[in-house]
Amino acid sequence: MKLTFLGTGTSCGVPTIGCQCYTCRSKDPRDKRLRCSALLETDTTRILIDCGPDFRQQIMSQPFRKIDGILITHAHYDHMGGMDDIRPYCQFGEINVYADPIARQGLLQMLPYCFEEHRYPGVPQIQLHEIRKHELLRIGDLDIIPIEVMHHDLPILGYRIGKLAYITDMKTIDEDEMAYLQHVDTLVVNALREKPHHSHQTLSEAVAFAKRVGARQTWLIHSSHDIGRHAEVNQSLPSNIQMAYDGMVVEI
User: pLDDT digits over 50-83, tens only?
Assistant: First the structure.
């Protein structure tokens, strides 16, 4: 199973528009962070996790093949604002999109023209599926268990897929959800910056959470320019807890 990080940045991306800070001026390509998204692939199945406003740019570097499903973590624009750009993939058939009730309603409001009885020719052909935490979902040869984390006071979904757990935009997690993270080998989790934030984990909180889960390897995502430069942050972290970067590929 192969995981490609299409984007590892926060809602504003890095560099941030109009900013001349130390991170935004970096020439290191690992400090160029598009909005969060990932592509998970086996020999027979291809799943996109979130489809933000940078999707078109992100997917152009990937082979043009069928996408078997799109998992939505939550109904914020930086995680689903690129849904209209899935149109070319509809030549392989309808796109199955999976979202919790809140995100499902957000998609219906954002893309009403995709769900009308008489659709305009050329709009994305979306089959929208409502999912709930802990209910097993099977796409191709992948078994997926949605888990619930809190984005401040908004419940959102993370996903346990085999030995992988993918979580973004988390601030807290209920103790009952930790059972679904047992024996995770690869953890992907958000780390916004070091300064406290009301709805996102700080770097220190993310490191503490990673140690609590105890995965063999943790990759940090959804990072803003305030976190600093990739190379310098990683030097300060344990070798098994590191920042991911756009375009990075890991084998699960």
Answer: 999 999 999 999 999 999 999 999 999 999 999 9
- Rounded to 5 degrees, what are φ and ψ at 58? -70, -40
The alpha carbons of the chain give a radius of gyration, in whole angstroms, of: 17
Query: SS3 sequence, 8-41?
Result: CECCCCECCCCCCCCCCCCCCHHHCECECEEEEE
Q: Give the list of residues 6+ apart from residue 75 with CB closer than 8 angstroms, or none.
A: 99, 102, 103, 105, 106, 107
**How sure is the predictor about 132, in pLDDT bands with cuts at 50, 70 and 90?**
very high
**Which residues have C-beta within 8 Å of that of residue 248, sequence separation ≥ 6?**
4, 5, 8, 219
Contact 123, 87 (CB under 8 A): yes
pLDDT tens figures, 149-191:
999 999 999 999 999 999 999 999 999 999 999 999 999 999 9
Distance CA 15, CA 27 (A): 10
Q: Is 1 exposed, middle or buried (0-12, 13-18, 19+ CB in 10 A)?
A: middle
Residue 121 has pLDDT above 90, yes or no: no
Residues 50, 94 contacting (CB under 8 angstroms)? no
Nearest alpha-carbon partner for 223 in 2, 24, 18, 1: 24
- Measured CA to CA, the distance from residue 167 to residue 202 in angstroms comes to 14
- State the Cα–Cα distance between residues 238 and 218, nearest whole angstrom: 10
- CA-to-CA distance for 133 and 146, rounded, in angstroms? 5
